[in-house]
Amino acid sequence: MASLWLKLLLFFFISLIYLNCMAKSTPHQETEFECVSIYKQPALQHPLMKNHRMQTRPSRELLSMLSTSNGNIPKEIDLKGSEECSEGQVPIHIPKTNFTNDLIHPQQSYNQSGRILKQARGGKGKEKKRNKKHKHKPKLFNETHLHYAIVKTFENSTKRWRGAQALFNINKPQVAQNQFSKAWIWLNYIQGSVMSSIQFGWAVHTKLYPDDRPRLTTFWMSDKNQKGCYNALCPGGYVQIHKSIYPGLVYDKFNVPGGKHNTVHLSVAEDPVTKNWLLTIGSTLIGYWPRQNHMAGGASEVYFGGLAGNSDLSSQHKTSTSPPMGNGAFPTEDLSRSCFMKQLKYVLSDYTIVDINPNELEDYVDSPKCYGVMFLKYVDFDSRETLTFGGPGGQC
Hints:
The protein is built from 2 helices and 18 strands. By secondary structure, it is mainly β.
């Protein structure tokens, strides 16, 4: 009998140890990336990439550009997780939504790209108050489920930009299921009805990701792929280089209004030597869009600002609410309580990085009762040209 009790007691303790180990080894969050051979990642599985020479570091010319553009650009990024892939492998984000075998993005997410309908020139780049009327400006995006608060360069058929950058403060807007909210930079080239675009920033996107945390996020369109694609999911698109920082990675620290700012400096610029479009944090290369498929002639316009909307169009109806943008508050000159991008710069055609020119900018807000944008011309040496934007959303 004693032997039986000892066996039962032993079984009980072993069961407790097993359950405890299971609880520790199965956290609530799933693995969100997979390590793949750097040469077998999705971007390189495209006919045009057959003889592509991979770029693993910025050219000296680009490094010189980045180092002289602003001396106080942070060189590190504070992101959740320290795991990195083995030598010769890179992390590729695994999306929440199921994908087809050829990794084409699902149809319900195509329309989040920011496809342009038409442009018109508005007022010049002075301080923009959220109560300023925007009714005389046409909508920039043809999707009814999208809302935006941005500044953009004038449409120009001859001028070309070779990149853009900003210091983002990171926020966590409270979005519902199948909604998204972004702090975003667009580099667009439009020829007729065809648009090529490289877009980047942080996003809360519950259709793409399994939760509502802000993440490093990118999107691209090319003349050969007008539906576009997020992150590193499609052939011919974004090439991942860094072993631990990748589009889809979580920003673990974000802002609380009135509290400490958590920021990240993001830049996309065409390398003057390789002509690839490089995504960098400070001077650290994260990945790039290859020259074979992306804006060989440069960008014809640049946007900075916020984008928010619903990603499940089947649930759309007239009374659906729109998500918050930025930190959920309208922009103010008090940057401690606003979502902002500081140190707004773009790269000119001669590959010099300069502060954006307020006289080349116009502002657009599609729903001023829900969102706002304010451009602050040269705040101080550290902030320089600054954009604040956001709003609570609602019935927009």
